[in-house]
Amino acid sequence: MNENIEQQDLNEILKIRRQKLSELQQAGKDPFVNVKYERTNTSGEIVNDFENFEGKLVSLAGRIIARRMMGKASFCNILDQDGKIQFYIKIDDVGEEKYEEYKKYDIGDIVGIKGEVFKTHTGEISIKVKDVILLAKSLQPLPEKWHGLKDTDLRYRQRYVDLIVNTDVRDTFIKRSKILKAIRSFLDSKGFLEVETPILNVIPGGAAARPFVTHHNTLDIDLFLRISPELYLKRLIVGGLEKVYEMGRVFRNEGISIKHNPEFSIMELYEAYTDYHGMMNLTEELMSTVAQETLGTTKIDYQGQEVELAAPWTRITMIDAVKKYAGVDFNEIKTDEEARKKGKELKLQVKDASTWGEILNLAFEEHVEKNLIQPTFIMDYPIEVSPLTKKKPSDPRLTERFELFMTAREMANAYSELNDPIDQKERFLKQVEARDAGDEEANMMDDDFVNALEYAMPPTGGLGIGLDRFIMLLTDSYSIRDVLLFPTMKPRE
Fold first, then answer.
1. Dihedrals φ, ψ of 69, to 5°?
2. How many other CB atoms sit within 10 Å of the CB of residue 488?
3. What is the DSSP letter of 199?
4. Mind listing the pLDDT tens digit for each residue in 266-323?
5. Is the dihedral of CA 250, 391, 234, 474 positive or negative?
6. What is the average pLDDT value for the chain, to the nearest integer?
7. Do the bridges between strand 57-70 and strand 110-119 make them parallel or antiparallel, or are there none, so unpaired?
8. CA separation for the pair 456, 490 (Å, rounded)
9. Report field, pTM of the whole predicted structure over 0.70
């Protein structure tokens, strides 16, 4: 019954607003014909520097979010990108005709105002209006009469409304922009060159993921949305660009969760003549510097957990981490058969063909990840799950790779990059075998990348950071959808 009443009320509001627009248009005052409005200032400039603006004539524009009518005078709040500011309008100051027009404005309408800056007797910085004009008519009412949009699903689908009514959401995305800017500034200061590589790939490579497939009509070939820019960036290292990075979208045809969206932002960088230890040092410095610059602190409160980003961070091998949290020392396990037996004891999803390295990785994922709250580098991954990484000279079963974890989530991935073209081709072939056996996330053969390595790639360290997860951390956002302006959503029926 209540839902029917609310729908009837909404229908009446929509009807009234359209009628108001029609009347304006018939009177030759269609707000949508306005093509420009000259603003002298924003609300933030005036509020933050009132002493220099007091008594001055200014021009602002924004959305009406609240108002109080008092006969021949009215207080009204408008919202622009900086925030909100109050204006005071009197019939004596704007004239009867203009005041009567103003009285017909609605919450949500976009207006331009000109007036004098002053402070009310209650101390609120305001604008005493000399002129007001309707710039755009809102035909839809704002949700819940400005008490906020609470429906999470609707917030993601109608982000434009979410940004209007939820100031914390606006703050998150403003902060996102500042974080990305700080990352660029840090890398630029270190001599890295920002580059752009193809998003449409003939071969999806650089990560273990299922790609999106499309088709190019003129060339009559299938193309893939990139799952990683890695292989192109390493081609640039071969070409002599010794420090490169790229920030942009990648696409993976996988599940959706609070940690995953089919398209997300990544930053990958590659530096010649260093290794994964150099990448650890760079990661510590980058993340702590960005936090300090954007938040003013390296102590982060994330969902009730305090995380300290100041260096140094914990560094531990995967084998030692599994020994610590699962009580199993994989250094003492010598064969795949022994590993499979131990994996079953740990209640892992062990297959008949599972290898020592695969089971070590499973044990880590099941028993270790959930414990890694403070920044922790997990080092020396098995070769089976690291097809683009250099082997450890001391143990060919392992590679010079780390992943960074905090708040029980992977935040970054880095290698001492494999630059042996013969070894790389052999690993690609093993990935092709896995793919032929049904692993849709296994890498494809990339002959051109192998050819590039044959021209000699110097020793290189590479790093990939999931930007959305890093931004989630710095903005205390629970879901990845909270830091994506337009997350992927299934269309409503």
1. -85, 135
2. 13
3. S
4. 999 999 999 999 999 999 999 999 999 999 999 999 999 999 999 999 999 999 999 9
5. positive
6. 94
7. antiparallel
8. 46
9. yes
* Separation of alpha carbons 203 and 201, rounded Å: 5
What's the CA gap between 322 and 414, in Å, rounded? 20
Judged by average pLDDT, the poorest of 100-104, 315-319, 385-389, 414-418 is 385-389
Residue 49: partners with Cβ closer than 8 Å, 6 or more residues away: none
Letter string b/e over residues 399-409, b meaning 16 or more CB atoms within 10 A of that residue's CB: bbbbbbbbbeb
- What contacts 24+ positions apart, CB below 8 Å, involve 20-26? 20/104, 20/106, 20/137, 21/137, 21/139, 24/134, 24/137
d(CA 373, CA 367): 14
Cis peptide before 312 (omega within 30 of 0): yes
Backbone angles phi, psi at 92, to 5 degrees: -70, -25
Q: Which two tokens stand for residue 109?
A: 């309408």
Q: What's the one-letter identity of residue 435? A: R
Question: In a 3-state reduction of DSSP, which class is residue 466?
Answer: strand
Please state the φ and ψ torsions of residue 334, each to the nearest 5 degrees.
-100, -25
Q: How deeply is 254 buried, as exposed, middle or buried, from its count of CB atoms within 10 A (0-12, 13-18, 19+)?
A: middle
What is the token pair recorded at 395? Answer: 């143990």
Comparing CA positions, the residue from 489, 464, 491, 492 lying closest to residue 479 is 489
Alpha-carbon distances, residue 123 vs 20, 66, 118, 209 (angstroms): 35, 18, 9, 58
DSSP 219-256: TTEEEEE-S-SHHHHHHHHHTT--EEEEEEEEE-----
Asked if residue 207 has pLDDT above 90, the reply is: no
Q: Which of 66, 90, 62 is nearest to 76 (CA)?
A: 66
Contacts of 461 (CB under 8 A, 6+ apart): 270, 271, 274, 275, 276, 278, 279, 282, 414, 415, 416, 417
DSSP assignment of 265-295 equals EEEEEEEET--HHHHHHHHHHHHHHHHHHHH
Indicate the pairing of strand 299-302 with strand 243-251.
unpaired
